[in-house]
Amino acid sequence: MTDPVLDFAPVLELAHVTHAFLGRDVLRDISLAVMPGEVVALIGPSGCGKSTLVHLAAGLLEQKSGRIARRFARQAMVFQEPRLMPWATAEANIAYAARLAGMGRHAARDAARTAAARVHFDAADLGKYPVELSGGMRQRVAIARALVVAPDFILFDEPFTALDAALKRRMQDLVIAQVAQASFSGLFVTHDLSEAARIAHRVAVLHPEGRGIMGVRHLPGAPGSRDDEAVFALTRRWQHEDPLFRHIHDVDERRIA
Ligand SMILES: Nc1ncnc2c1ncn2[C@@H]1O[C@H](COP(=O)(O)OP(=O)(O)OP(=O)(O)O)[C@@H](O)[C@H]1O
Ligand SMILES: [Mg+2]
After folding, report:
1. What mean pLDDT value characterizes the chain?
2. CB 88: neighbour CB atoms within 10 A?
3. Nearest CA to ligand 1 atom 4
4. How far apart are the C-alpha atoms of 5 and 2, rounded to whole Å?
5. In the chain, what percentage of residues exceed pLDDT 90?
6. Of all atoms in ligand 1, which is nearest to the CA of residue 254?
7. Which of 76, 138, 181, 204 could bridge across to 82 with cysteines, CB 3.0–4.6 Å?
8. What is the pTM assigned to this prediction?
9. Minimum-distance ligand to the CA of 44?
10. Is 124 in the pocket of ligand 1 (CB under 6 A)?
């Protein structure tokens, strides 16, 4: 039987977390919680520490101080870059994650094919190596690799940036649908305010120099219940009326450079 108290405990909880690279604090006093069935979008300007925070949450880095509690069974990480094994085909990249999660060879291959289909990756391309794939295709392989392990918690770091508008929407819908089925919760980094407005329950804004979470906004209704008009209205309000979003620009400055 599940403990009713535990059901209300955050699945991910960071309390006063600090992290330093080469003696320089990049994150200071970060406190953030993700509740069961909840998606929290994390936004902030480039270089403020979003990826670092996600890597800490995933346990890939160890914090300098503070506490991180993880109450999920299986996390799935999508890095900002696809990070595929260059010597393995798309299918083998996805299947490898399933094998690591304990699946047999045939089951892993079937699961890889199913996961690829979910991210609209053409079966005909599954035999290709990463170098033969476009940026958007590589990123979808990375998403399929994350989903193939049936995670109960996702840590997605700007996963859809390399995708065109239509695909991006489909991928967002995939996340929304999974969360609605209560199959996972997650922390989702994005620089795209309308993406945050579509897929999240709450939006957390990281300080431009990583000095804490500046504020959190609860979004009305469930993700998936907001139509384009509602998403547009939310985004506009944040940009024009909400001081919390003063440092957030709804463009990817790295693409302009
Ligand atoms: N491995 C590392 N060694 C040293 N410094 C690092 C390392 N990784 C990140 N940093 C520094 O930490 C800070 C935060 O970087 P991080 O990648 O977390 O930012 P971000 O918010 O994800 O940026 P972006 O939006 O561009 O992805 C930056 O100043 C960066 O230079
Ligand atoms: Mg980053």
Report:
1. 91
2. 14
3. 21
4. 9
5. 83
6. 26
7. 138
8. 0.92
9. 1
10. no
> What's the rounded Cα separation, in Å, for the pair 195 and 85?
28
Q: Whose CA is nearest to atom 31 of ligand 1?
A: 47
CA pair distance 21, 11, nearest whole angstrom? 27
pLDDT in tens, 100-135: 999 999 999 999 999 999 999 999 999 999 999 999
List 43's β-bridge partners, or say none.
205
DSSP 34: E
Mean pLDDT of 138-155: 94
Q: In the chain, which ranges are continuous DSSP H helix? A: 4-7, 50-58, 90-100, 105-118, 135-147, 165-180, 193-199, 228-241, 253-256
Q: What pLDDT, in 10s, does the model give residues 80-94?
A: 999 999 999 999 999
Average pLDDT over residues 140-151: 94
Task: Indicate which residue's Cα is closest to atom 18 of ligand 1.
Answer: 49
Measured from the CB, is residue 52 less than 6 Å from ligand 1?
yes
Answer yes or no: is the C-beta of 26 below 6 A from any ligand 1 atom. Answer: yes
Q: Which residues are CB-neighbours of 2 under 8 A, at least 6 positions away?
A: none
Q: Do residues 153 and 123 touch, judged by C-beta distance below 8 A? A: no
Provide the β-strand partners of residue 7. Answer: none
Residues 6+ apart with CB under 8 A from 91: 109, 112, 113, 116, 126, 127
Question: Given this model, what pLDDT does residue 2 score?
Answer: 47
Query: How close is the Cα of 154 to the center of ligand 1, in Å?
Result: 20
Among all ligands shown, which has an atom nearest to the Cα of 254? 1
State how far the Cα of 200 lies from the Cα of 164, in Å rounded to an integer.
Answer: 20
Q: Using a 6 Å cutoff on CB, does residue 172 contact ligand 1?
A: no
pLDDT the model gives residue 94: 98
